[in-house]
UniProtKB/TrEMBL annotation:
Residues annotated for Zn(2+) 1 binding in this entry: 56, 58, 150, 303
Metabolic or biological pathway, per its Swiss-Prot or TrEMBL entry: Pyrimidine metabolism; UMP biosynthesis via de novo pathway; (S)-dihydroorotate from bicarbonate: step 3/3
Cofactor binding note of this UniProt entry: Binds 2 Zn(2+) ions per subunit.
Annotated source species: Luedemannella helvata
Binding-site residues for substrate, renumbered to this chain: 58-60, 90, 276, 307, 321-322
Coiled coil regions in record: none
EC annotation from Swiss-Prot or TrEMBL: 3.5.2.3
Binding site for Zn(2+) 2: 150, 177, 230
Pfam families: DHOase
Protein name as catalogued: Dihydroorotase
Primary role: Catalyzes the reversible cyclization of carbamoyl aspartate to dihydroorotate.
């Protein structure tokens, strides 16, 4: 196994460091290391960050390998600076049994580009009627800790209560896709001035907020851990702020696209901007950024949602919701949170690595880059700018909403347990 000596990188806090990586761990971290025999990487001008962790990735395998596979999604993740991703359960078949989560876990291990931690479904077939085999998934080789029907809301409050009670026994987490379905029937975009202007059926903010309000109260009642997926409205941020102040065990994520884009994008009828929850207003974007900066929203998660061409390049009403995001997430967070002065690199490391690793219980990730820590890290050029070309993405799908945009910061190297997965900006395989 090659030993790597990273020379002259800066840590998020600003200190310069050399890092010696051997046998999967950082064996030394100091201002000057002379590691003879090591392959030297000149990291002058680069930032060394703990590998990013994505709590919300759709890898589409099994079932929709035409849109993404565990391997292509893992490659996209590594190129985005990630060393671990949590794979959502809305595959086909649904990841609602020990067999399917173990299959995804094994595919991730075989691809070997990031650690793939499967998320199990809360209900059988995501149908919202019967609890899935949560215990069997937790005890499987995949050791599932997070359960989610993402794409669908667990809308029956009794079932939600039971799910929270069940996972409390092993400190598991229910990750809720907060959408009251009776309020979003036929919805195509955010309900507001833009939807009225375009004549499209709206998805009102209250459909998200009502479920979050209900579920933080249920989590308090049960004493269990709740995570809210892709928070998208200012009202949701307010409810979360209240719940956290009250000591309720709730965490929340925001996506890069909800930090940058608004519902005005729907005006061009390009389905690349169709996503669930929908893009909201400028006031929502401002509240989400503020919530992420002050810690009300704990993490950034991509909701990387690859879709095959025929599912996206069609009329808006028929297009599937979702955007790819793994390869652009870091850059969009830099543009929206760092370049605006709302957060610094240490904040980014917390929201994109440390906190998601803690929520998911991934002990090998989100660690300080010190001697003895697993060598899961990424080297980023903070001065780089790059143009997003959908055809150049490693994801099997092309549905990025950032085509043609120039974004700041670029991943140059990523290491998984001391082995490069990205080498000078290119995937190693
Ligand atoms: O836009 C979305 N796409 N939101 C979801 O919740 C599900 C996801 C998907 O699976 O495509």
């Amino acid at each position: 196994m090659t030993t790597y000596l990273i020379k002259g990188a800066r840590l998020a806090g600003g200190n310069r460091t050399d890092l010696l990586l051997r046998d999967g761990v950082i064996v030394e971290a100091a201002e000057k290391i002379s590691g003879s025999g090591a392959e030297v990487i000149d990291a002058d001008g680069l930032l060394a960050l703990p590998g990013l962790v994505d709590l919300h990735t759709h890898l589409r395998e099994p079932g929709r390998e035409d849109a993404e596979t565990v391997e292509t999604g893992s490659r996209a993740a590594a190129l985005g600076g990630y060393t671990a991703v949590c794979a959502m359960a809305n595959t086909s078949p649904v990841a609602d049994t020990a067999g399917v989560v173990e299959q995804v876990w094994r595919l991730g291990r075989d691809a070997g580009l990031v650690d793939v931690q499967p998320i199990g479904a809360v209900t059988v077939g995501l149908a919202g009627e019967h609890l899935a085999e949560l215990g069997a998934m937790a005890e499987s080789a995949a050791a599932v800790r997070i359960f989610s029907d993402d794409g669908h809301c667990v809308h029956d409050p009794r079932l939600m209560r039971r799910a929270l009670e069940y996972v409390r026994a092993f400190d598991g987490v229910i990750a809720q896709h907060a959408e009251e379905p009776r309020l979003t029937q036929g919805a195509q975009m955010h309900e507001g001035v833009e939807s009225a202007r375009l004549g499209m059926t709206g998805w009102p903010a209250v459909a998200e907020e009502a479920i979050i309000a209900r579920d933080v109260l249920l989590a308090e009642h049960v004493g269990a851990r709740l995570h809210i997926c892709h928070v998208s409205t200012a009202g949701s941020v307010e409810i979360l702020r209240w719940a956290k102040k009250r000591g309720i065990r709730v965490t929340a994520e925001v996506t890069p696209h909800h930090l940058l884009l608004t519902d005005e994008k729907a005006g061009g009828y390009d389905p690349v901007f169709k996503v669930n929850p929908p893009l909201r207003t400028n006031a929502d974007v401002a509240a989400l950024r503020q919530g992420l900066a002050d810690g009300t929203i704990d993490i950034v998660a991509t909701d990387h949602a690859p879709h095959a061409l025929q599912d996206k390049e069609c009329e808006w009403a028929y297009a599937r919701p979702g955007m790819v995001g793994l390869e652009t997430a870091l850059s969009v967070v830099v543009a929206t949170m760092l370049e605006t002065g709302l957060m610094d690199w240490s904040g980014l490391v917390d929201r994109m690595s440390v906190a998601p690793a803690r929520i998911a219980g991934l002990a090998e990730h989100g660690r300080d880059l010190v001697a003895g820590a697993p060598a899961n890290l990424t080297l980023v050029d903070p001065a780089a700018r790059w143009g997003v070309d959908p055809a150049a993405l490693a994801s099997r799908s092309r549905n990025t909403p950032y085509a043609g945009l120039t974004l700041p910061s670029r991943v140059v190297w990523t290491f998984l347990r001391g082995v490069p997965t990205v080498h000078e900006g290119k995937a190693v395989r």
